[in-house]
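go over my protein:
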Amino acid sequence: MPVKGMAWINTIEHEEASGKTKEVYDRILKEREHIANIFLAQGMEPAVLEKNMELYLEILMGEGPLTREEREMIAVIVSAANRCAYGAVHHSEALETVEHDSDALHSLIKEYSQKAETPRNKALLAYAAKITLDPKDITSDDIGDLREAGLNDGEILRATLVAAYFNFSNRISLSLGVELERGKTRSYRY
């Protein structure tokens, strides 16, 4: 039975799920050890949720270009630019876990705002912010800046995919009023 409370629409808790929704939730629990509210909010569309979860895991944690830390930094910058507290909090916590540094977010914000970040990270974060705030203004010069900072085309593609995915996810969270979990343990695997 759908319940209210974690979003502006009814959501289906794991205990109440059946059929395909239960199947997808069980898979998420097995892989992630918890079901984040952003995924519970999508429970009425289990086929879409299943594909979304697969994309999330591949883009953020799959093998390929960019480190997990770089991917989490992009997620944080995109979420902050969108003013999406849900994404910013989740991925700042993940960044701190992945970097084994409880001040990772503070350091990221300080370095980014003071432009003291490494040229590679500075270019990645500026690109992610521009994709979020002014995507129509992206030009080949932006790609050139990334290449000058040492990124190859595969890394540029992955940065674009990570930023685009988190813009998608932030819009789900913001549009449905998805609340940040309280008192739940979140586990980040890397």
About this structure: The radius of gyration is 17 Å.
